């Protein structure tokens, strides 16, 4: 049996993809963690036994099963067992607590809830009891087990909703995003084919498996038949041992991860921090061009960045054979089948990787236009070569004295300042101007003090228009970030400094 990755991406369901890969390369590893290895053949066999155990508990096709588990081999086995049964699964990020978890359980009407027991000092079963969760069971080291002979036939189509993912809920209750097996396969295929990976590569999962990036990445492993190292707890420099031990060739996650690897590289210039590494790849947050250039220059590896969201796990992706200009300044190109339309500056999307909508029908109606394109809320444009350039979020446009100012433009310039480790620019309410421009900066390690006059002088030298110059500078030890892809939470900055401005008046 000999199938190409492109033909495998036509698999109807995720379980179909697992089965076809297991037939092709049963003895090759797929997941590596510490001293443990799971092969593609073992993935299929063990997931079927877990599926049988779940079936014995009462889980059936269409049963809603929520799980809040760390990035472990057992988590992947449970997830694929649920895919084998055709259950509807609702992954929940492990760092969420009562408010977000309770909302997810209620809205999804979950009939079962898998938790890790006590993990990282938090008692998940106790939270489940507080929330009145149904069918609570522990799935950390031990998983349900049974005889696969009792199982019904696997699902034959991949267009039914079998996944409920949750947006971050940073400004309100999270939204339940509805996905199918086919939408997840389409997203993972975009990532896989753009990166030009081979069976000789070794990937890495340093992000929560419960994030939409979990299946995105796993689809890539199944298509190309190579393994990834899983990190239950990711922190540098401690995680470097795992990267080096397993010979990781592809790492990343998001812009924050690139910066963390860069910081480690700068501790030992001239010696590669991960000797086997050849590519950093990720998405989930804006990437200043200077970060791209710094990675290539200092780490000696390529960097490809992409664009995705919970609603569309992969929209565009940079490719290693793109030009330096495109890799530094764009989000890459969309795959075949992803339609991008720019309407009044907003990016809108239509294609197989786009979700089916939200649990709340009103949210679905609001999110899609009359032609079925998803309104992303992101601003951008397409170049002549079909590469997508993002210029910011619609809510990140600062309106100062009637003039629109892009926060991203200022952030990209400040990211190249030697004293700036990271930066976020937000608009704050101002009685005279409508909004004022506030730059919030993480100072680079060992950098001298930074003041507003320094920032203004630097930006003027870089050619930034006078009306876009920041009127306020805040220097912080660390920008607030979420726990998944370490994305900066700008709403917290707006709340913090808007409140401070109000109190000052």
TrEMBL record:
InterPro entries assigned to the protein according to its UniProt record, in alphabetical order: AMP-bd_C (IPR025110), AMP-bd_C_sf (IPR045851), AMP-binding_CS (IPR020845), AMP-dep_synth/lig_dom (IPR000873), ANL_N_sf (IPR042099)
Official protein name in the record: AMP-binding protein
Annotated segments matching region Disordered: 316-335
UniProt entry tagged with the keyword Cell membrane: no
Domain of life where this protein originates: Bacteria
Keyword rRNA processing: no
Record-stated family: Belongs to the ATP-dependent AMP-binding enzyme family.
Pfam family, one: AMP-binding_C
Keywords noted in UniProt: Ligase
Residue ranges constituting the AMP-dependent synthetase/ligase domain according to the UniProt record: 19-359
Organism for this UniProt entry: Streptomyces justiciae
Domain AMP-binding enzyme C-terminal stretches: 409-483
């Amino acid at each position: 049996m000999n199938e190409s990755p492109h033909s495998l991406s036509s698999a109807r369901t995720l379980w179909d993809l697992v089965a076809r890969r297991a037939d092709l390369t049963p003895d090759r590893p797929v997941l590596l963690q510490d001293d443990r290895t799971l092969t593609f053949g073992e993935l299929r066999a063990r997931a079927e036994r877990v599926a049988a155990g779940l079936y014995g508990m009462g889980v059936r096709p269409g049963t809603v099963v929520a799980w809040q588990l760390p990035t472990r081999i057992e988590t992947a086995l449970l997830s694929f067992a649920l895919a084998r049964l055709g259950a509807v699964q609702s992954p929940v990020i492990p760092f969420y607590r009562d408010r977000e978890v309770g909302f997810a359980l209620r809205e999804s009407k979950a009939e079962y809830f898998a938790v890790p027991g006590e993990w990282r000092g938090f008692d998940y079963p106790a939270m489940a009891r507080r929330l009145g969760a149904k069918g609570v069971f522990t799935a950390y080291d031990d998983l349900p087990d049974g005889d696969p002979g009792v199982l019904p036939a696997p699902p034959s189509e991949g267009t039914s909703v079998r996944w409920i993912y949750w947006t971050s809920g940073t400004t309100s209750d999270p939204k339940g995003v509805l996905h199918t097996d086919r939408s997840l396969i389409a997203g993972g295929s975009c990532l896989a084919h753009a990166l030009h990976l081979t069976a000789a590569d070794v990937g890495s999962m340093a992000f929560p498996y419960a994030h939409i990036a979990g299946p995105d990445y796993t689809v890539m492993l199944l298509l190309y038949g190579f393994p990834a190292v899983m990190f239950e707890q990711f922190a540098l420099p401690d995680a470097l041992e795992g990267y080096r031990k397993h010979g990781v060739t592809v790492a990343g996650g998001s812009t924050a991860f690139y910066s963390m690897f860069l910081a480690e590289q700068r501790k030992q210039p001239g010696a590669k921090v991960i000797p086997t590494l050849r590519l950093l790849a990720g998405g989930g947050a804006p990437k200043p061009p200077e970060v791209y250039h710094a990675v290539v220059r200092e780490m000696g590896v390529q960097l490809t960045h992409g664009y995705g969201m919970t609603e569309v796990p992969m929209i565009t992706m940079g490719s290693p054979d793109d030009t330096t200009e495109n890799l530094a300044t764009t989000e890459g190109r969309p795959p075949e089948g992803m339609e991008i339309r720019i309407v009044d500056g907003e990016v809108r999307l239509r294609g197989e990787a786009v979700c089916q909508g939200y649990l709340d029908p009103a949210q679905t109606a609001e999110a899609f236009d009359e032609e079925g394109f998803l309104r992303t809320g992101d601003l951008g444009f397409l170049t002549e070569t079909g590469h997508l350039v993002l210029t910011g979020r619609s809510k990140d446009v600062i309106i100062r004295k009637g003039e629109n100012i892009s926060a991203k433009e200022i952030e990209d310039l400040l990211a190249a300042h030697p004293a700036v480790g990271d930066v976020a620019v937000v608009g704050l309410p101002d009685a005279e101007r409508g909004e004022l421009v506030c730059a919030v900066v993480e100072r680079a390690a060992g950098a001298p003090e930074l003041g507003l006059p320094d920032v203004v002088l630097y930006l003027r030298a870089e050619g930034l228009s006078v009306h876009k110059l920041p009127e306020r500078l805040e220097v912080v030890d660390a920008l607030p970030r979420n726990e998944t892809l370490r994305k900066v939470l700008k709403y917290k900055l707006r709340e913090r400094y808007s409140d401070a401005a109000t109190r000052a008046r």
